[in-house]
Amino acid sequence: MKIRVLIGIIFLLLQVGSIIYARFIPERFFCWAPYDTHVKFEVFVTIDGKTLSPEDTEARYNYKMRGWEQRSIDNIFSLISQYERTYGKADNAQVLITYAVNGHEEKEWRFSHE
Length: 114
Fold this sequence. Notes:
2 domains
């Protein structure tokens, strides 16, 4: 019986630790309240001087590239950065994201290959 109680306590401590950790990282995965921001965004990708269409951009990243995101914008930054550092590395794409968090002033984010 004691081993079951110990396993239960360890499990609960791991859960609490994960939640506390998630509150302090930008992506906010595994938070109890991950939908605390709303982001309006649009992604523009240019390869060899040609700007990709919205459909081509969505196909490239396999994710919507315009509209509302109910999670942290860092999730989209992460998705694009991971793709560009792996599969898209040879394309040398220039990526610009325009976004506004919770209706505040619009900002820009650019992917850098450095």
